[in-house]
């Protein structure tokens, strides 16, 4: 039942990543659209995520936050979807899923805020530098259809979403390896369904609140 899996999101957020993952899983879910200034900060939602941020899910009464964690959780919670790789491919699966969620996103955020660590600071910062993080990510996807093993997994949803988003908004440079990796992911039926849903919601919001 959809009530067993609740999805808290805003279409103009990282919730798009989880929407794609949910569409890949194929299980019914109950979407709850939250507003940044109001419902996202209500006590009811803060009980789900004290950070007051989306996305989050509640599955069978248990809350999960953070996009990478949600993707990994859903892959395990719904094994019939085949989104968690076999044991032999789990090393790359966990490595690149959490590398992209950690050092890559940190590096991109730091750059966006105008922070460029010097040589000494790079030794302390987990991401080192943006170039170092992107070089490592490029090595993970170059010449590959999938980031872990020989089949599509939850790691491709997360890593693919981050690269896709970065290429669209200019926070990740259009290196050939990134473009080649993301292009077929954009053709996934679940990716297209998720984008159609969120784009329709965005259009509704914009129509209701014209600038």
Provide structural commentary.
The chain starts with a strand and ends with a helix. The chain has a 4-stranded mixed beta sheet with strand order 2-1-3-4, covered by helices on one side. The protein has 211 residues and is α+β, with helices and mostly antiparallel strands. Helix 3 runs antiparallel to helix 7. It has 2 domains: 80 residues, Glutaredoxin, CATH 3.40.30.10; 104 residues, Glutathione S-transferase Yfyf (Class Pi), Chain A, domain 2 (Up-down Bundle), CATH 1.20.1050. Strand 1, helix 1 and strand 2 form a beta-alpha-beta unit. 54% of the residues lie in helices and 8% in strands.
Order of helices and strands: EHEHEEHHHHHHH
Q: Which stretches are low in confidence, meaning pLDDT under 50 for 5 or more residues running?
A: none
**Strand portion, in percent?**
5-15%
Order the strands across the largest sheet as they lie in space: 2-1-3-4
Number of strands: 4
Q: What is the makeup of the main sheet?
A: 4 strands, mixed
Task: Determine the CATH topology of the largest domain.
Answer: Glutathione S-transferase Yfyf (Class Pi), Chain A, domain 2
Percent in helix: 40-55%
User: Into how many domains do the coordinates divide?
Assistant: 2
Oligomeric state of the chains in view = single chain
Query: What's the CATH C level of the largest domain?
Result: Mainly Alpha
**Between the first and last Cα atoms, what is the distance in angstroms?**
38 Å
Kindly name the structural category: alpha+beta
Number of helices: 9
- Overall geometry: globular
């Amino acid at each position: 039942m959809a009530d067993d899996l609740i999805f808290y999101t805003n279409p103009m957020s990282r919730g798009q990543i989880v929407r794609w993952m949910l569409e890949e899983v194929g299980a019914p879910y109950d979407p709850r659209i939250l507003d940044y200034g109001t419902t996202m900060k209500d006590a009811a939602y803060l009980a789900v995520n004290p950070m007051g941020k989306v996305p989050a899910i509640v599955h069978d009464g248990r809350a999960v936050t953070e996009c990478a964690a949600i993707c990994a959780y859903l892959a395990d919670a719904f094994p019939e979807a085949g989104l968690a790789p076999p044991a032999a491919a789990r090393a790359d699966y966990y490595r690149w899923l959490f590398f992209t969620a950690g050092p890559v996103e940190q590096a991109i955020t730091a750059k966006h805020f105008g922070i460029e660590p010097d040589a000494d600071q790079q030794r302390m910062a987990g991401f080192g530098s943006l170039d170092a993080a992107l070089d490592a990510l490029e090595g993970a996807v170059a010449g590959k259809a999938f980031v872990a093993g020989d089949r599509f997994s939850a790691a491709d949803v997360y890593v693919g979403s981050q690269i896709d988003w970065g290429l669209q908004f200019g926070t990740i440079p259009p290196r050939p390896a990134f473009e080649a990796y993301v292009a077929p992911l954009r053709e996934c039926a679940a990716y297209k369904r998720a984008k159609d849903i969120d784009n329709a919601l965005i259009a509704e919001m914009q129509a209701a609140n014209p600038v």
